[in-house]
């Protein structure tokens, strides 16, 4: 199961590769509260991996562990076959792990274009002096990065708001801009923290389509947290189910749906 | 033109130039406040520290000479050389970057996420510490600073205006130079923050820490950068004020003059700092000229603060500050 060389073919014919990220026996505590208890799972290349669970199950904590915002007390994080030492969030981002936030963290004072451009910061290598005289390398870099960003803006259909300050956008569009910024980094692994939280049905459908398209078009590996069971089951290839900080299920949507423990956690245990 | 109008014009010109110097100090505050939400009380002392370091390096003074002499019983004071101004300025800048690094690593890094008032208190401590270090390093006597900037009456303006109005304007060459340098500095800062990678990262950090982390920006690096830039601005302000009125401890009090500028311009706006500085500069000179004689003069000491008070009452966010909206 954990053999990195092996992959599998999904029902809709996409080829899923080896393991990109592996969480081994992760335990995370806040003082006396155990947010995550000894959880292990892996994320494979090219797949859409969902983490679901009721409120307070520890899903967001898990995402924060992957993105380096939290450092677990126990357990190991393996990325591309290497054990990752404790890292700061910006170092994790530089390794190619991009993320969005549950409560949207955008640069409100900047335009949509500038926001998405910040996703490219790590692709800008020219020194301060080269940038100061704005020649050669710096200029070429800026052009290349602009092209990459424009492609993503087109892809997510936000051309019409390119120059708009983010603070003036409605909620649904902000979520999309945040996705654009994460994509601009051309991440090896994209983490989405409740990408559809607070959206209406139409916005949810749009977002689902974009997530599928991103995965399809760029082959981006995606790990997402979601509340809406229906959405998750349609989107994801494999699902981890968490409850009270423990893993209670892991498998394809169908396997998870028929798992008694998962049903109990979501619906409560039936009273006979 | 009537005599009064001609005098007033001269007063306004002088006010504008004084305003540029105020703006220069205020700019240092704005940079740090924008990027980290810290009101840096030490900005004025940083200007003093920079000016003292510059003088010390130029004169070939041995840093910590008193301390060394006291410990080892030596009698060294000078290396016996003089460093050219430009080289000395570069070396001083290096010292300011080192200071920025120390501030970040020994103080601010440990206070991330604390209340603004705690950060403010930390900068008060920093101000006194830095003042002590400056004293210990270079001695506390008043020094003159001369990096070769032109000083004194600008004869050309005097002659020309005399030819036109029959009255020669008194404009100090140093003020003209300060204005030009401040304009270049501001243009450079704006270009830096708008068009470079580091500038973009700086704006990102100013806007949202979490988001900045998630796109791979090191907060610690950016803060060192911001304190360095503020150190550079302090150096420029220190050179201008130091040349004008000598390098002495009262130099650190120019920070107090920057406060009303910030109230007017808003704490978060670079253009605000400029416009605020100019308004205060012109305002206090004009007020002294027009009303001063009626109330016995010396209005320059308090005019700026009264103006700031009025602004606090009617427009607390300043002219260019972010609007304060309270959600209930």
UniProtKB/TrEMBL annotation, chain A:
<dbReference type="GO" id="GO:0005524">
    <property type="term" value="F:ATP binding"/>
</dbReference>
<dbReference type="InterPro" id="IPR032823">
    <property type="entry name" value="BCA_ABC_TP_C"/>
</dbReference>
<dbReference type="InterPro" id="IPR051120">
    <property type="entry name" value="ABC_AA/LPS_Transport"/>
</dbReference>
<dbReference type="InterPro" id="IPR003439">
    <property type="entry name" value="ABC_transporter-like_ATP-bd"/>
</dbReference>
<keyword id="KW-0547">Nucleotide-binding</keyword>
<dbReference type="GO" id="GO:0005886">
    <property type="term" value="C:plasma membrane"/>
</dbReference>
<dbReference type="Pfam" id="PF12399">
    <property type="entry name" value="BCA_ABC_TP_C"/>
</dbReference>
<keyword id="KW-0813">Transport</keyword>
<protein>
    <submittedName>
        <fullName>Amino acid/amide ABC transporter ATP-binding protein 1, HAAT family</fullName>
    </submittedName>
</protein>
<dbReference type="Pfam" id="PF00005">
    <property type="entry name" value="ABC_tran"/>
</dbReference>
<dbReference type="InterPro" id="IPR003593">
    <property type="entry name" value="AAA+_ATPase"/>
</dbReference>
<feature type="domain" description="ABC transporter">
    <location>
        <begin position="21"/>
        <end position="269"/>
    </location>
</feature>
<keyword id="KW-0067">ATP-binding</keyword>
<dbReference type="InterPro" id="IPR027417">
    <property type="entry name" value="P-loop_NTPase"/>
</dbReference>
<dbReference type="GO" id="GO:0016887">
    <property type="term" value="F:ATP hydrolysis activity"/>
</dbReference>
UniProtKB/TrEMBL annotation, chain B:
<dbReference type="InterPro" id="IPR001851">
    <property type="entry name" value="ABC_transp_permease"/>
</dbReference>
<dbReference type="GO" id="GO:0022857">
    <property type="term" value="F:transmembrane transporter activity"/>
</dbReference>
<feature type="transmembrane region" description="Helical">
    <location>
        <begin position="118"/>
        <end position="138"/>
    </location>
</feature>
<dbReference type="InterPro" id="IPR052157">
    <property type="entry name" value="BCAA_transport_permease"/>
</dbReference>
<feature type="transmembrane region" description="Helical">
    <location>
        <begin position="164"/>
        <end position="192"/>
    </location>
</feature>
<feature type="transmembrane region" description="Helical">
    <location>
        <begin position="85"/>
        <end position="106"/>
    </location>
</feature>
<keyword id="KW-0812">Transmembrane</keyword>
<keyword id="KW-1003">Cell membrane</keyword>
<dbReference type="GO" id="GO:0006865">
    <property type="term" value="P:amino acid transport"/>
</dbReference>
<keyword id="KW-0472">Membrane</keyword>
<feature type="transmembrane region" description="Helical">
    <location>
        <begin position="12"/>
        <end position="33"/>
    </location>
</feature>
<keyword id="KW-1133">Transmembrane helix</keyword>
<feature type="transmembrane region" description="Helical">
    <location>
        <begin position="45"/>
        <end position="65"/>
    </location>
</feature>
<keyword id="KW-0029">Amino-acid transport</keyword>
<dbReference type="Pfam" id="PF02653">
    <property type="entry name" value="BPD_transp_2"/>
</dbReference>
<protein>
    <submittedName>
        <fullName>Amino acid/amide ABC transporter membrane protein 1, HAAT family</fullName>
    </submittedName>
</protein>
<dbReference type="GO" id="GO:0005886">
    <property type="term" value="C:plasma membrane"/>
</dbReference>
<feature type="transmembrane region" description="Helical">
    <location>
        <begin position="261"/>
        <end position="282"/>
    </location>
</feature>
<comment type="similarity">
    <text>Belongs to the binding-protein-dependent transport system permease family. LivHM subfamily.</text>
</comment>
<feature type="transmembrane region" description="Helical">
    <location>
        <begin position="213"/>
        <end position="241"/>
    </location>
</feature>
<feature type="transmembrane region" description="Helical">
    <location>
        <begin position="294"/>
        <end position="314"/>
    </location>
</feature>
<keyword id="KW-0813">Transport</keyword>
């Amino acid at each position: 199961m954990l053999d990195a060389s092996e992959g599998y073919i999904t029902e809709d014919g996409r080829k899923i590769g080896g393991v990109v990220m592996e969480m081994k026996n992760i335990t995370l505590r806040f003082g006396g509260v155990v947010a995550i208890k000894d959880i292990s799972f892996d994320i494979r290349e090219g797949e859409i991996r969902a983490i679901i669970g009721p409120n307070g199950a520890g899903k967001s904590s898990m995402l924060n562990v992957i993105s380096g915002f939290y450092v677990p007390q126990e357990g190991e994080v393996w990325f591309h076959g290497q054990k990752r030492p404790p890292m700061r969030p910006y170092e994790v981002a530089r390794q190619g792990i991009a993320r969005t936030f549950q409560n949207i963290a955008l640069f409100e004072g900047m335009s949509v274009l500038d926001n998405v451009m910040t996703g490219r910061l790590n692709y800008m290598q020219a020194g301060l002096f080269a940038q100061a005289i704005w020649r050669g390398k710096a200029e070429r870099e800026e052009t290349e990065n602009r092209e990459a960003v424009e492609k993503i803006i087109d892809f997510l259909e936000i051309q019409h708001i390119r120059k708009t300050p983010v603070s003036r956008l409605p909620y649904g569009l902000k979520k999309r801009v945040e996705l654009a910024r994460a994509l601009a980094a051309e991440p090896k692994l994209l983490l989405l923290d409740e990408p559809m939280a607070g959206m209406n049905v139409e916005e949810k459908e749009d977002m689902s389509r974009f997530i599928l398209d991103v995965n399809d078009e760029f082959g981006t590996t995606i790990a997402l947290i979601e509340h809406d069971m229906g959405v998750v089951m349609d989107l994801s290839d494999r699902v981890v189910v968490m409850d009270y900080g423990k893993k209670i299920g892991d498998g394809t949507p169908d396997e998870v749906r028929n798992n008694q423990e998962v049903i109990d956690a979501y619906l409560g245990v039936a009273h006979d | 033109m009537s005599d009064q109008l001609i005098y007033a014009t001269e007063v306004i010109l002088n006010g504008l130039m004084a305003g540029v110097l105020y703006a220069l100090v205020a700019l240092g505050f704005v940079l740090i406040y924008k990027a980290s939400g810290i009101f840096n009380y030490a900005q004025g002392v940083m200007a003093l520290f920079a000016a003292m370091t510059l003088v010390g390096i130029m004169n070939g003074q041995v840093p910590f000479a008193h301390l060394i002499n006291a410990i080892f019983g030596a009698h060294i004071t000078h290396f016996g050389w003089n460093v050219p101004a430009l080289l000395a300025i570069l070396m001083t800048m290096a010292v300011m970057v080192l200071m920025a690094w120390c501030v970040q690593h020994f103080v601010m890094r440990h206070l991330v996420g604390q209340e603004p008032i705690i950060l403010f208190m930390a900068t008060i401590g920093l101000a006194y510490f830095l003042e002590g270090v400056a004293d210990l390093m270079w001695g506390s006597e008043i020094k003159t600073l001369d990096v070769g900037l032109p000083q004194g009456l600008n004869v050309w303006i005097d002659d020309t205006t005399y030819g036109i109005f029959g009255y020669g304007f008194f404009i100090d060459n140093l003020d003209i130079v300060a204005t030009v340098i401040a304009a270049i500095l501001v243009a450079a800062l704006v270009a830096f923050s708008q068009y470079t990678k580091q500038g973009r990262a700086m704006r990102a950090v100013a806007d949202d820490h979490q988001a900045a982390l998630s796109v791979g920006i090191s907060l610690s690096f950016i803060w060192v950068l911001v304190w360095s830039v503020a150190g550079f601005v302090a150096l420029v302000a220190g050179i201008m004020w130091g040349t004008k009125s000598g390098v002495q401890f009262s130099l650190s009090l120019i920070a107090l003059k920057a406060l009303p500028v910030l109230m007017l311009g808003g704490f978060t706006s670079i253009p605000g700092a400029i416009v605020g500085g100019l308004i205060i500069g012109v305002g206090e000179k004009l007020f002294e000229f027009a009303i001063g004689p009626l109330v016995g003069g010396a209005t320059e000491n308090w005019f700026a603060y009264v103006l700031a008070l009025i602004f606090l009452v009617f427009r607390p966010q300043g002219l260019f500050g972010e609007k304060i909206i309270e959600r209930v």
